[in-house]
Amino acid sequence: MQRLVAICTLAAFIPGPARSDDTFRCGSYLVSMPLSVSELLHKCGQPSSKKTSTDDVRAKVSGGGSQKIGTSATEVWRYERPGSPPMIVTIVDGVIQSMEAGQK
């Protein structure tokens, strides 16, 4: 189980294509991926809610087991949009990873 957690955590550091399910309207702006956090804040302002978590990043060590090699910060921002599903933005270590329509 620890090996699976370490592999999944390390996989988060491998650059991959950013995901976006849609283009979203923020006031007079349209936002879609790719987008920086500063561009998102400029166009959409502060989110209606934020959830933050910090996870240990672990690597396999010789002889079995794993060792902590750092941490990874994940933020989930929620933007309420009148008449539309909320926009959910996931940011990992300061980089937007996804923008998706959430549940009302």
What does this structure look like?
It is built from 2 helices and 7 strands, in the order H-E-E-E-H-E-E-E-E. Strand 4 and strand 5 form a beta hairpin. The termini are far apart. It is 17% helix and 50% strand. The strands form 2 sheets. It has a 5-stranded mixed beta sheet with strand order 1-7-6-5-4, covered by helices on one side. A two-stranded antiparallel sheet has the order 2-3. It has one domain (2-101). The model is unreliable at 4-8 and 10-20 (pLDDT under 50). By secondary structure, it is of the alpha+beta class.
- As a whole number of angstroms, the C-alpha radius of gyration is 16 Å
* End-to-end distance: 34 Å
Name the structural class: alpha+beta
Specify the number of helices: 2
Topology:
Elements: H1 2-11, E1 19-20, E2 24-26, E3 29-31, H2 37-44, E4 49-60, E5 66-81, E6 84-92, E7 95-101
Parallel strand pairs: 1-7
Antiparallel strand pairs: 2-3, 4-5, 5-6, 6-7
Keywords:
104 residues; alpha+beta; two-stranded antiparallel sheet
Briefly, what is this?
The chain has 104 residues and is of the alpha+beta class. It has helices at 2-11, 37-44, and strands at 19-20, 24-26, 29-31, 49-60, 66-81, 84-92, 95-101. It has one domain (2-101).
